[in-house]
Amino acid sequence: MHYSESDTRSKFIDPALYQQWREESQIVREWYFTDGRKLPGNKRGKQCFVDYLLKDFGLNLAIIEAKKYGLSSTEWLEQVKDYGSMLWVRRVYSTNGQEIYEFDLQEWLGRIIDSYPTPQELYDRYTDEYATIRQQILCVPYYIDSNKKPRYYQDLAISKALTAIASGHNKILLTLATGTGKTYIAFQIAYKLLQAKRSKTWWNRRPRILFLADRNILIEQAMNTFNPLENDCKQISGKEIKRSLGKVPTNANIFFSIYQALISWSDEDLDDQVVDSSLHSEWQWWYYRQYDPAFFDMIIIDECHRGWANTDGNWFAILDYFNSAVQIGMTATPKRQDNINTYDYFGEPVYEYSLKQGINDGFLTPYKVKRIQTNIDELVIDHDVEILDGEVDKDLYEIKDFDRKIIVPERIDLIARTIVEQIKPNDKTIIFCVDQEHAARVRDAINTHKTVRDPDYCVRVTSNDGDVGRTYLERFQDNDKTIPTILTSSQMLTTWVDAKNVRTIVLLRNIGSMTEFKQIIGRGTRVFEGKDYFTIMDFTGATNLFYDPAWDGEQLTDDISIIDPNNKPENEEKDNDENEITASETTPPKTKIRVRLSNNKELRIVNIETRYIGDDGKPLTATQYLESLIGKLPALYHSEAQLRTARANPKTREELLWQLYTIWLDEDQFETLRRMFDAEDSDVFDVLAHLSYGEEIKTRTQRVQRALANSHTLSQSYEIQAKEFLDYLLQYYEQYGSTQLVQSKIGEVIKLYGRGWLSVMDMTQAFGGYEQLLQAWKWVQEELFVI
Description:
With 787 residues, the protein is of the alpha/beta class. The chain folds into 4 domains: 5-126, tt1808, chain A (Alpha-Beta Complex); 131-353, P-loop containing nucleotide triphosphate hydrolases (Rossmann fold, 3-Layer(aba) Sandwich); 361-610, P-loop containing nucleotide triphosphate hydrolases (Rossmann fold), CATH 3.40.50.300; 631-787, no CATH class. Helix content is 35%, strand content 17%. The longest helix is centred in the last third of the chain and has 17 residues, at 720-736. The chain has an 8-stranded mixed sheet with strand order 22-23-21-24-25-16-27-28. The chain has a 7-stranded parallel sheet with strand order 11-12-10-13-14-9-15, sandwiched between helices. Strands 1-4-5-6-7-8 form a 6-stranded mixed sheet, sandwiched between helices. Helix 23 packs antiparallel against helix 24 (720-736).
């Protein structure tokens, strides 16, 4: 008897399931829980999908993989086991409607069973002495607004954190890659606790929660996320305390503050206002000590790696004072040597979601790296170098010294010109510079070479730019605006810029910390419609810090030198962009050397190496990446004849291009592929035919000349305008290749031919009808690829 999978579900699986699971709300059907990895051409890869997710008591309890009647019940067992691990369920089931196979992901044992377990039987696997408390919190529904629901990993992070709270843990760490919604997770945690009326003493009282960060912009963004709880929220700020004559606010449930605002104040800070005399005591300099140590039930510390929880720091002083509160640290950086204090303080994360996972799930944008080297990445002080200012203290200046110790205007100009050449004019770009002075120099150099004539095309955004800089940043973050397009900065934009359409991150300063590096790169990972990937343009070698086996996949060592994250640049100074303490506050900075190169000193780019990141997070050179993709070609076309037929027709060629895009062969890859075979003047499909079947590679010019000599289409009795358009098609192919002559681009090519003055309708009339136009468009291209 033949049944489809749909029939199997409705006739066999559902009735068996309903015997134990009677509430429809406990069963989530046909659930896509990832978006699918982003691919070129605004396409998506395969989404992760489960036929049934069984939920109850606020937890994912099991998943069921359904196969059609007659197939083996374990046909897709490995896939359902992988999905079960992703969703943190203990039991997974695979069934064909005839038998049920159960696999326990904790004991790694499988067996055939007669019937599905009940919700209570599955939940009992999680039962412990804290089950009642956990259940009361987790069963509170999420706050849902505008159909926005927590993604699967956000749901898991929330459940893991609340389970840890219910189990009596006081220090909890959540580690999730930048751009995955940590603040939204914090909001849902707070919302559930408020709705459950669960304070740390578990009385019937709504908890008091402190959201703590080190930058005002983080607090502003958090308050926007917590806006549904606006009536429960209060910001602790100097202005608020001044209005209250020096008293801290207490009439709220959720408080927001930067830790600097809680540390100290003086009479000068209060602008000589009258202060309650009762506050004048030995601790009048510490706002937070006005609160009882047990006042807060929970403290959420955003970007907790920035405080590092040092035992001699102000951050630690606040956390130590409120040590009875549950403390939840949130960070985007995995445990490494440069943030080990954070992990020593909080312990191992209760949930971790890596950059690699976010990219493969389609919630973050993939990236590629362009490592750019100049012939002046080292400078020997010789007779070709004129010292304009400062004192030379060594004979050789290395890449880490540029713009920190020595300024070479010609090098800045070369880099700026290269950046403009490498990006598209409207690609939103952030350039990370050595310091604010360097950011200004780069801005000025970019504006010298830009092609877009707008005064705000490239601007600097640092703390010295004040409100003007913040206005520029707000406009930059607006996805409906293209100006400003390029921002130059140093430290200020490292952690909190939420601009979804950033296409390029440029690194012009040496970075000694993997933690800082990952924060910077996080500016480009946000997903945006039409943004297939973002590019890291690296002039310093800092991208070597990104190759992190535990977070992004195993590293390859082929011509990749690893920068020691503990080996920070000499005399590295933090830039005072946002409440940062700089070395210059304690030690006067040395005057930078400024030099001029002689006219016979040629400056040039000596190498641009593009690196790609595979599905497993491994960094690959362009050649290695192409080799990994070439092995997937046989699945796209099965014979030389099939490839010839597909490439000759503009419609089927476009379909084949989309298939190539799905394996990440795009226009950049095509260019690299042609270079590998010394075929820059040939069509990419000629290279693919040579690669797959040994076919001779012809140049585009050769194909055009043969088409002109033998074309049946060109000899047709068309109007003059039609004949001229077909001649233009051949010229266009010779210049750009067949990827630009696919079916969907006919209107674009007509517009280019007519310089904007001709439409498809105009050309239709010239050919005597639309069908005749399409036929000629097709025939002339078939003649290009006749052999």
